[in-house]
Amino acid sequence: MMVAIRRYAPYVDIEKVDEAYHYAEAKHADQKRKDGSPYIIHPLAVAEIVAEIGLDTDAVLGALLHDCIEDTDSSFDDIARRFGKTVAELVEGVTKLTRVQYSTTEEQQMENLRKMFMAMSKDIRVILIKIADRLHNTRTLQYQTPAKQISKSMETMEIYAPLAHRLGMQKIKWELEDESLKYLEPKAYQEIMDYLDAHQAQANEFMRGVQSKITTRLSGVGIHGKIYGRIKHVYSIYRKMKSQNKTIDELYDLYAFRIIVDTIPDCYNVLGHIHDLFSLVPGRFKDYISTPKPNMYQSLHTTVIGTDGIPFEVQIRTWEMHQTAEYGVAAHWKYKQGINKTGEEKDFEWIRRLLESQQDTDAEEYVHSLKVDMFDDEVFVFTPKGKVISLPQGSTPIDFAYAIHSAVGNSMVGAKIAGRIVKFDEPLKNGDIVEILTSKTAKGPSRDWLKICKSNQARNKIKQWFKKECREDNIVHGKASFEAELRHMNLNPNILNDEELLPNLLKKVCFDTLDDMYAAIGYGGITAQKCVGRIRDELLHAGKPPKDPKATGLNLGKAPTRNESGVIVGGDIGSCMVKFSRCCTPVPGDDIIGFITKGYGVSIHRKDCPNAKGASDPAQADRWVHVTWANTESEPFSTTLEIDSTARQGVFLDVATILASMKVRVTEISARDLPDDRCLTLATFDVKNLEELNTIRQKIRGLSGVTDVRRGRN
Ligand code: MN
Q1: What is the rounded distance in angstroms from the CA atom of residue 347 to the CA atom of residue 330?
Q2: What are the average pLDDT values for consecutive 10-residue runs of the chain, which has 714 residues?
Q3: Which of 141, 292, 397, 420 is most open to solvent, judged by the fewest CB atoms within 10 Å of its CB?
């Protein structure tokens, strides 16, 4: 057996290998295999497979020692002291994988298990040793009980064969599949084997014929190449029968030929000769040299038909491609041996380089699947029942709880990892068994959880909870942070009381009411910064004419119409919303002009309002429209008068008396003292028209001490 290791891997440090062999032999001395042979046979066979796929000395040592920690009294430290830390880590890695339990056959779970394997194998050699271990155990399954044969074969089919495939190790994958099929579908397996046996002679004759035809041609044109003929492996025949619902003799192609040459140009040359020698089956040619498969596989594939009408597949590749096809990622150690013995491959740079050269999307997926052990972006943990949960790296028990179910997260009061109580922010590690403690009286998630959790899933579910459970609270929280943000931007929160501005603002932030917006901010659906950001421009430009007339959103082109507001908007603007500007509070009878606002119809100003001065600006000329008062009774208009007077007690009262005698509704009246013993009184009230306003204005003007009465303008 040692000889075999030496033959496969002449570069290994055979002295060290010998030492490890004797160490393992002594440790396993009192153990026997199921077939009665000494236990050491198994690790030795695994080491041989590891050598065959081309791994380095450390991996061979790791394979020899792989069952020591699990099955004997040797420890990590003992192995590290004797054989180095790397070897001890490989052994420990394999041991951890050995302890992973399978409890399901659900497809998604299997995929997670496979990923967990990758993630747990910090060093990709761990998984390669584990696959070699499984290959040898599969080869010796006949000594196990029937129940164990079936469960192990299922594991192999679901976990190890796909892993071998993903790592590009076709040869091992095929053997794992064929051996497993033997136990999982014994009848079908036997049927295929019987058929192949019965047709052995015929098949050999056919393959020899094709082989010699190709050999003759290639040597005739001076191409150096080796030709192998084979019958496809049992499991792939089985799968084809199943998927095409055919018996084996109805199957399209059972034969495959492989031509291995020295260079890539030779590959394409050979292809030409094959297509010349045999008739081509259209649509079956594939160029995996220019577009490698995600698992790095490269070859030219074509299917042709021989003279006797039997179709067969031909794969053409270089020796280097052949190594990769057989041993996948492991093949790269083989090439590295001798060139670079420093073992500087720890960061798997070569896989990255290799994958970067593959541009198709499958390759990206492959990068992602390998990522778990190279880039550390996912963590895989178990529920107490053995279900695997995949979470982003750095996830906590909170993420785990919400991954199980939102109800579990919302009623979580504690968490255990491997039976030990942990804090909510404890980062989960690969392979952890996590248990969530819940209580019916739990208060629900806390806002801090949003900062602790790592997964979007948990974050969204926590936000949802806040959204549903505490709207009142959220409104209070949200309002506070929104107003804080406004002040931070030097904006006055009172601006939100502007009923003219509000619908516009709500439209900007896409909420129906202010409370809805506050609630959303409160539960974290949107940030206060974002909301303020969306309306910032509106707030800053409130009252100022916007620049883009095309954005007015008005119905143009209709006949002039009377508006309910009592104003006729002329020109080519039809029925539209009208509002009375707050700056000059026009009333019927005032000379007025309309300004087309952005999104809120026409705003009516007095012609003498300072804000209407823009009407003479040619750049804005097309936004100012002619408006007139309708000659009908309508709702009263609110307006303001500013009254200057000497500081005399009673002006305030006199003004109020006049307003009361005129039977107008007063909404506000206030007075304040000015320097030089003067006083300013402001009165806001409703009037029907300018006439009524002028009457009131005259009466106030006549009061003693009053020096001026002006129309208010802010
Ligand atoms: Mn083993």
Answers
A1: 15
A2: 76 89 93 90 94 86 94 93 92 84 64 67 80 94 92 88 81 94 94 91 90 94 92 90 85 87 94 91 86 81 86 92 79 48 40 40 42 54 77 91 90 88 89 85 84 88 81 83 83 74 81 84 80 79 44 36 61 60 79 77 81 74 76 72 83 85 84 83 86 90 88 70
A3: 420
C-alpha to C-alpha distance for 152 and 499, rounded to whole angstroms:
73
d(CA 390, CA 392): 7
Q: Give me the DSSP letters along 33-52.
A: -TTSSBTTHHHHHHHHHHHH
- Please give the pLDDT value at position 118: 65
User: Quick one: 479 exposed, middle or buried, by C-beta within 10 A (0-12, 13-18, 19+)?
Assistant: buried
User: Using the 8-state DSSP alphabet, how is residue 637 labeled?
Assistant: E
The pLDDT assigned to 330 comes to: 67
How much distance in Å is there from the Cα of 66 to the middle of ligand 1? 6
CA 693 / ligand 1 centre spacing (Å)? 102
Residue 377 alpha carbon to ligand 1 centre in Å: 29
CA-closest candidate to residue 196, choices 218, 213, 178, 176? 178
CA 39 / ligand 1 centre spacing (Å): 10
Residue type, 429: K
* 3-state SS class at 649: coil
Contact between 211 and 312 under an 8 Å Cβ cutoff? The reply is no
Amino acid at 602: V
Catalytic residues, by residue number, are 70-71
136 alpha carbon to ligand 1 midpoint, in Å? 8
Distance CA 684, CA 670 (A): 9
Q: Which residue has the tokens 């996830």?
A: 395
- Residue 469 tokens read as 């459970």
Cβ of 660: how many Cβ atoms within 10 Å?
10
DSSP secondary structure string for all residues of 432-473: -BEEEEE-TT-----TTHHHH---HHHHHHHHHHHHHHTHHH
Q: Is residue 161 within 8 Å of residue 110, measured between CB atoms?
A: no
In Å, how far from its chain's centre is CA 184? 37
**Residue 658 to residue 704: CA distance in whole angstroms:** 13
Length of the chain (residues): 714
Matching residue, tokens 């800053």: 540
Amino acid 562: pLDDT: 43
Give the Cα separation of 468 and 490 in Å (integer). 32
The pLDDT, as a whole number, for residue 343 is 40
Q: Hey, is 674 helix, strand or coil?
A: strand
Q: Is the pTM value of this prediction over 0.70?
A: no
